[in-house]
């Protein structure tokens, strides 16, 4: 709670603006096909919205009026709209100002929007020969979060934590809590982040959002499980010994019999070391890119949004004229104002989505130029926070902008999230993406002599030959993350032991 009167009033205003800002964020998060469906349903509900046919002879720049109808407005309608902003920060402030002008109109609109969305989902699921779109790991966790009654500040941090989780990595949290928070965060913010992480880690699937394998396995153990205490002991103190099959060492340190240790091992095999991987099962047979990357003759990459299929929206001329018509009743005028406000908000949100997605995509492409030039092995370590700072928005806005979006590049079609990767510092002091190390490490091990596998020291030398000067402890850490056994275990397996 804010203590000063001024800040308290500001908090009340923020709470009032939140629902409309939530809607603009929802528009931003929608992929192109879902946005197209959303627009169609909004038009069915709001008679103020019309589609204006585009003149194909005109360039795109000349058709801005179609999606930003600020001309020929009545005095009453002018109260509901504002001028176009020049930056993303101004975009959000502009949308917030619109919300302040129409404090009483959103509830009805939001209820109708939610109802339309629910109807859309049901209709989509009932379409012949159309399988239901599977729920992503992030959506699954966000739905659980929405059912909890927790403090708003903790909930916002929990949302950021969830946005950092990737099913491809098993659902582990590879970002530090400090990096999730703003750069100027306080110790109290870190305490809130720890609380938020505990909330996310208590969700299903069990073991989600762990920071390492040990935490992942420990979080899956329930008090009523068979040998729960013994499993906690082995995981906490002897996980490496167990992985290397050093059972006598565990026996000496714990006093457990070899038979009991083997039984504990069997129980541990029932735990899931990658709880988020289950959300990778579905392969999308057809992908519609939201963004296309094009290169000019000088090798400069630029992005272009694929949104030609979206209708060009405007406010109905008839209803705009009705506002100034003396025959219109007060009730009719109020209805028109509410609907025009809702329509204008939708148009503004779509415009903002276009600007934000374009700028975010362009910054990603600028940063990952080597990926486009040389291929996936040249991907650079990149955090969403870096793009957020470049664009001038919050990191959660970047997360929503790239969510469920695909980008078509000269190297193929990829999810936009694909370009955000974590990394490490090489022996030469250069940042190296984990993905680059992973791909090269897997390639080297796939080609090794199975009867004489490479040790971690050998892998260090091999990576150096490819220009990747990585420390041995880093190789060991990444090898374990990839589920690759030690050289001794690989040798034993090759011998059939």
Tell me what you see in this structure:
- Residues 1-18, 61-88 and 98-132 have low confidence and may be disordered.
- Helix content is 55%, strand content 6%.
- It has 497 residues and is of the alpha+beta class.
- α7 (137-146) packs antiparallel against α8 (152-163), α16 crosses α18 and α21 crosses α22.
- The protein has helices at 5-29, 32-45, 64-67, 75-78, 88-101, 106-126, 137-146, 152-163, 177-180, 187-201, 213-218, 228-243, 247-254, 258-268, 317-323, 330-367, 369-374, 384-391, 395-402, 434-447, 456-465, 472-481, 487-495; strands spanning 49-51, 291-295, 301-305, 313-315, 406-409, 412-415, 423-425, 431-433.
- The strands form three sheets. A four-stranded mixed beta sheet has the order 3-2-5-6, with helices on one face. A two-stranded antiparallel ribbon has the order 1-4. A two-stranded antiparallel sheet has the order 7-8.
- Among the domains are: 137-211; 221-270; 423-495, Homeodomain-like (Arc Repressor Mutant, subunit A, Orthogonal Bundle), CATH 1.10.10.60.
- The protein is globular, with a radius of gyration of 27 Å.
- The protein contains 23 helices and eight strands.
């Amino acid at each position: 709670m804010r203590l000063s009167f001024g800040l308290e009033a500001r908090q009340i205003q923020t709470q009032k603006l939140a629902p409309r800002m939530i809607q603009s964020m929802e528009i931003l998060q929608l992929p192109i096909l879902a946005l197209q469906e959303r627009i169609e349903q909004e038009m069915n509900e709001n008679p103020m919205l019309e589609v204006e046919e585009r003149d194909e002879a005109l360039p795109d720049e000349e058709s801005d009026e179609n999606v930003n109808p600020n001309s020929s407005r009545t005095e009453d309608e002018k109260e509901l709209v504002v001028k176009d902003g020049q930056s993303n920060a101004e975009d959000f402030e502009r949308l917030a100002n619109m919300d302040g002008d129409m404090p009483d109109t959103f509830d009805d609109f939001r209820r109708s929007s939610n109802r339309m969305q629910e109807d859309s989902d049901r209709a989509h699921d009932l379409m012949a020969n159309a399988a239901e779109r599977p729920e992503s790991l992030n959506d699954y966790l966000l739905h659980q979060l929405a059912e909890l009654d927790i403090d708003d500040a903790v909930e916002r941090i929990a949302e950021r934590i969830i946005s950092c989780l990737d099913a491809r990595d098993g659902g582990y949290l590879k970002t530090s809590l400090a990096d999730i928070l703003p750069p100027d965060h306080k110790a109290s913010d870190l305490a809130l982040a720890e609380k938020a992480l505990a909330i996310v880690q208590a969700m299903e699937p069990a073991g989600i959002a762990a920071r390492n394998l040990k935490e992942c396995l420990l979080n899956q153990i329930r008090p009523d499980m068979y040998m729960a205490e013994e499993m906690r002991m082995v995981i906490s103190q002897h996980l490496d010994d167990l992985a290397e099959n050093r059972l006598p060492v565990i026996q000496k340190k714990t006093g457990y019999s070899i038979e009991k240790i083997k039984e504990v091992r069997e129980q541990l095999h029932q735990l899931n070391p990658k709880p988020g991987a289950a959300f990778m099962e579905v392969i999308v047979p057809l992908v519609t890119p939201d963004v296309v990357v094009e290169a000019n003759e000088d090798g400069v990459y630029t992005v272009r949004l694929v949104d030609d299929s979206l209708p060009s929206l405007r406010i109905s001329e008839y209803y705009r004229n009705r506002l100034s018509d003396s025959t219109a009743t007060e009730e009719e005028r109020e209805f028109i104002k509410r609907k025009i406000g809702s329509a204008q908000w939708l148009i503004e949100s779509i415009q903002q989505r276009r600007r934000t997605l374009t700028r975010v995509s362009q910054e990603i492409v600028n940063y990952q130029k080597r990926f486009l030039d040389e291929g996936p092995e040249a991907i650079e370590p990149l955090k969403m926070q870096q793009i957020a700072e470049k664009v001038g928005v919050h990191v959660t806005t970047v997360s929503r902008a790239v969510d469920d979006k695909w980008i078509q590049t000269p190297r193929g079609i990829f999810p936009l999230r694909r370009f955000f990767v974590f990394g490490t510092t090489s022996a030469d002091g250069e940042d190296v993406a984990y993905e680059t190390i992973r791909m090269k490490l897997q390639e080297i091990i796939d080609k090794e002599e199975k009867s004489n596998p490479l040790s971690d020291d050998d892998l260090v030398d091999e990576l150096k030959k490819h220009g990747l000067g990585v420390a041995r402890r880093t190789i060991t850490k990444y090898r374990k993350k990839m589920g690759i056994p030690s050289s001794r275990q690989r040798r034993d397996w090759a011998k059939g032991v």
